[in-house]
């Protein structure tokens, strides 16, 4: 492996993708800080990381390593990679589905391979260890959630509408939302046992509360929210969202208990009673 060539060629791949470095890290399911350090030469890319870069970008792994002059993969290579995102993305998506249905500790690499219609060797090629794969699945969920939040906020007319959009996104109305919440609930338990997953948990909630606090600041500046301490208000609101969501997940759709609509209405009422100025309602 040519240690000087690899970062240069990965930078070329990122430039060709015409996305930010953070977005590229999301696509290859890699910690953005690790990608940054690897590009600067402060750490080496692992073989698994390079395989994910090659599979996602459609380039020859040998070219990344400086051992081949062929930039693109041949027609035979990766021809069966599922779109979008190639095999690594499929592996992570299937892992997320399995975690939601079975929980972290019940998901085996063999189960993931079966869901992807491939071999365990192929799974290990992209993700050498089970723990790395499970952490990648958590990061994938985090990044997908962050991307959706950013998109919804950008479409809102003002901060009050932004907060409405965030609440709607966090309410598990759909099966997709219930799957994601199931992963989060399992993440909470796993975070208490795993330093690595716990670190991801802390990172996610820091980002999530910061997003809510920033919306509240904009709302105060726009005159739609009461004067509050944004960080404390964000902590209370996100804690309420978590608690209500856990009740919804414990209730079968259509069954007795807390429904998604109950959760949504309770959150809007809380916003009206504690955050919005008189005359403005969520």
Automatic annotation (TrEMBL):
<dbReference type="GO" id="GO:0003700">
    <property type="term" value="F:DNA-binding transcription factor activity"/>
</dbReference>
<keyword id="KW-0804">Transcription</keyword>
<dbReference type="Pfam" id="PF00440">
    <property type="entry name" value="TetR_N"/>
</dbReference>
<dbReference type="InterPro" id="IPR036271">
    <property type="entry name" value="Tet_transcr_reg_TetR-rel_C_sf"/>
</dbReference>
<protein>
    <submittedName>
        <fullName>TetR family transcriptional regulator C-terminal domain-containing protein</fullName>
    </submittedName>
</protein>
<dbReference type="InterPro" id="IPR001387">
    <property type="entry name" value="Cro/C1-type_HTH"/>
</dbReference>
<dbReference type="InterPro" id="IPR010982">
    <property type="entry name" value="Lambda_DNA-bd_dom_sf"/>
</dbReference>
<dbReference type="Pfam" id="PF13977">
    <property type="entry name" value="TetR_C_6"/>
</dbReference>
<keyword id="KW-0805">Transcription regulation</keyword>
<feature type="domain" description="HTH tetR-type">
    <location>
        <begin position="85"/>
        <end position="145"/>
    </location>
</feature>
<feature type="region of interest" description="Disordered">
    <location>
        <begin position="66"/>
        <end position="88"/>
    </location>
</feature>
<dbReference type="InterPro" id="IPR001647">
    <property type="entry name" value="HTH_TetR"/>
</dbReference>
<dbReference type="InterPro" id="IPR039538">
    <property type="entry name" value="BetI_C"/>
</dbReference>
<keyword id="KW-0678">Repressor</keyword>
<dbReference type="InterPro" id="IPR050109">
    <property type="entry name" value="HTH-type_TetR-like_transc_reg"/>
</dbReference>
<feature type="DNA-binding region" description="H-T-H motif">
    <location>
        <begin position="108"/>
        <end position="127"/>
    </location>
</feature>
<keyword id="KW-0238">DNA-binding</keyword>
<dbReference type="InterPro" id="IPR009057">
    <property type="entry name" value="Homeodomain-like_sf"/>
</dbReference>
<dbReference type="GO" id="GO:0000976">
    <property type="term" value="F:transcription cis-regulatory region binding"/>
</dbReference>
<feature type="domain" description="HTH cro/C1-type">
    <location>
        <begin position="10"/>
        <end position="64"/>
    </location>
</feature>
